[in-house]
Structures are given as structure tokens and as C-alpha cells.
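Q: Got a minute? One more chain.
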Amino acid sequence: AREGESVLALDGRVYMLNHANVVIADGNGVESIAGIMGGEASGCDETTTDVLMESALWDPLNIAQSGRALGIITDARYRFERGVDPAMAVPGLDIATNLILDICGGEASAAEIAGQVPDTDRIIEFPISEIKRLTGLKVPPGEIRHVLTRLGFFTAGQGETWKVAIPSWRPDVHEKADLVEEVVRIVGLDRVAPEPLDRGGAVQGQVLTVMQKRRSAARRALAARGLVEAITWSFIARDKAIRFGGGQKALSLANPIAADLSDMRPSLLPGLLDALRRNADRAQDDVALFEVGQVFTGDEPDDQLHAVTGLRHGIAGGRNWRGGAGADAFDAKEDALAVLAAVGAPMAKLQIVQGASDVFHPGRSGTIQLGPKNTFAYFGELHPAIVETFGLEGTVAGFEIVLDRLPSPKLKSTPTKPALDISPFQPVTRDFAFLVDAKVAAADLIRAAENADRKLVAGATIFDRYQGKGVPDGKVSLALAVTLQPREKTLTDAEIEAVAARIVAEIGNRTGAILRA
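A: Always. Here it is, folded:
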């Protein structure tokens, strides 16, 4: 075609052409796009009496490139871009002509043949021992010859090396390995005897990467907590992509499979929310789902990240006589911490701060980080506007963890497990109630208690929170259970009181909390 030429095709659309598109034309201009679609001007209707029958061969690569560039998918393109039998050009014309004469009648002119049929004759030297060498399969020579002959190949020779002529309709066969494949796929891969690989007589190194181990551990941890794994599309609608932090031009698909799957996902949350909505539409309101997959922040290799996301909707365990509230931020927090513990995150160093991305509820969400510059997880209740956008009712709680942002695990000096370290002495638990400013994070109290005596304090947890009558405005009462684990001897009352005093003093110094009477 000439640059800027156009043609009105049989589908009623006008296609702009250029010098890369092969066309069929006459003195009046383009008649059709070669090997892809005919033009409307040269089309047939119920009044047509004269038909020009054409049987042609086209370059498969050119047909594929032109069809993709023009956005045309036809049966002709499908066949020509995959290659047709060049030896059938003339016989095919005769067959089609005879069909028209038999069914419709009429008269046919003599065929006008232009050009030459391409020479596709190929002969391959085929050592039949290659079948045994490449596949380990022993196939008798008689069976090999029978298979190749039935597939249209021509074989000659009686020794260990045969000459095999390739039929014109098999442009995919070029070498002896292709012939081995043809024989093996017919006689059956089930005849290949399984054999273990040689391990070399030594213990092999690790097979799975750190990321593969983390993904597997995350799946097991969430499944153990009652969540069901879901696999959603990696592409979402553009408006949803923008709402969840995506929508960049680099992440838009040039040829999406559907209008609502136009952009690569920046988060796993949209896909899981759609899954929750589909469940809710079918009266399945108590659903907990998770997904482990890729999210995309750009079109560079490092912009593809591995994420773990979980969502809970409705009442855990469904309706029951005891009643119950829907999933909340604390459920999501427990799920997130369970995943982080399973993948080997440094749990003792994690920092939990209030607030998350704008996808979450501003007052019922949190961020998990290792310092302000390394944020890798969010959890909490999703923003009501997000929940409403996806057609859901009630509360939806969830989390999202980016595994790539977790620090690499430390290499162990030895592959063996460390010795089991269990103290023979009974632990001691002491409870404390502190009056503290409502803006102070509970985690600060826990961290202060653990730092009071790192050798004896085995752990601390918040077990009660009270704010109301008897507590001044702006203050909150937090009850703390601290576990002391002696390792050298049983603690005396005096030693316990001394540790308790240090805990109270450390919490007071760090948070300003006062021990309640």
C-alpha cells in the first residue's frame, strides 16, 4: 500500500494503510487487505454473477504484523499468519472452483497462475538413535517408520541413519530433534520411564528463594487462621486503579481483554473487594479471603512487588446465639502480625503507629514499620467510602503487606537448629494498672516494661482498657500483665517487688504514666 491509502473493508470500517501493509489493488485503488480481509467495493451480494477466485500465498510474518497493527482478527489472518501448505495453492483453487460449479452452476475460465510455488523440499539426516539419546525411550525401528509414514513423512534407509523427507504442510519441522518430538508424542510420553536426577553424592543447597519461602509461609499462616485463598485478575478498571494509588500511563494496557480490566493493579485490595461483593450478592456475607500476588507501581522490573493481603467481612463464624460484632481493626492487626511472624520479620523491632493510607478508615487503622522510612504494612477497617463504592454493607477489615520491603533474613552460621532453651523455673506474672494520657500508644508501655529488665521480663501484654467514670478527662487506664521468667533460681518476694518497682519507674519515665492505687 501507499502511505495514507485507505480501504472500506467488509466489516464496514475504514482502515488507514501504509507501506508495511500488503494489499490487492487495481487501477482504481485498493481492493482488499491481503490475507486478512476483503474490501466492500469488491464484495459479493445476491446480485453478483461474476466472481474472481483467488488462491494466494502470503508471508506469515507480514500478515501477523499487519493484522496486529490494524486490530483485525479474521479466519484468514488466523490461518495465514500460522502458515498454510504452499503446495495447495493451485489444487485449492481447483477444489473451490469445482465446489462452486457443483453447487451454484456457471462456467469457469482457465486459471491464470502468476509466480512460482515455493520450494519446500527438505530432507533431514535422521539417526534413529537420537530418540533414545534425547528421551530415554526405546522405540523399535518398525514403529518409528510407521509413525513417521502415517504423519506424512517419507523415509528411506535401513541402517542407523535414515533420510526423511518433510511434507510441504509441516513448516515447523527443521531438524532431527523435531522428528524425535513427532515420534515421542505419538507413541506416548507415558512410555518414558521416570528416573531420579543424579544428586552428585552431596547434600544439595537450598532450592527455594527467600521470596518463595515467604509466600508459602504467608499462605500457610493465613489458611491456619481461617482465611480462604483467592486468585484475582492482575488488571483492574482504571477508576479503581486511580483510587488505590495507580492509574499511571505506564500501567495502562494497550490491548485489554475487557474495558473494566484496563490497568495493572497497584494493590490486591480491589480484586478481593470484588470477590467479597460477589459473595455478598449470593448471600455469603461472612467471608474471609486472602491473596498472595504481584502488585505494580511502574513498568520497570523493580516496580513489580510481592504483596500479601487479607480481608474479613461480616461476623467471624457466622450468626450464632451469642451474637457478635463484625471484623474490626484488631482482627486485621492479628492477621498481619501472624503473617509477619511466619515470614521471619523481626517482631521485637516492629513499630505500630496509628493511621494508614487513605484507603483505610482514618481513626481505625495502623501502619507497621521499621522506622519512618521503611513502611511495609497497613491494617485496619477500610474507609466507608471504599466499602460503599464496591457495593458492600457493614464493616470490612483487612491488611496489606509488601514482602519486598521486609529486611533480608540474617544468614545462619550453621544449618542446624539451636539448642532448646527452656527455663526449669516457674514464671511469675504481675499485673499493673496505669493512668496515662490518652494520646500515648499502648505499645510504648509494653516496650518500656520489656526494657526495664531484659533478662527477667519475658513479655508484656495489655489486657484491659478503661475510660470513663473515675478517670480524668484526656486520660485512660491501661492494665498491663508482665511475665517474669527466672533462669538461675526461683525469685523471692523481695526480688519480684524490686523488678516491679523498676517496671513502674521505667514506664513512668518513658510515658508519664502513673500507677493507679
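A: The two ends are 94 Å apart (CA to CA).
Q: Perfect, thanks.
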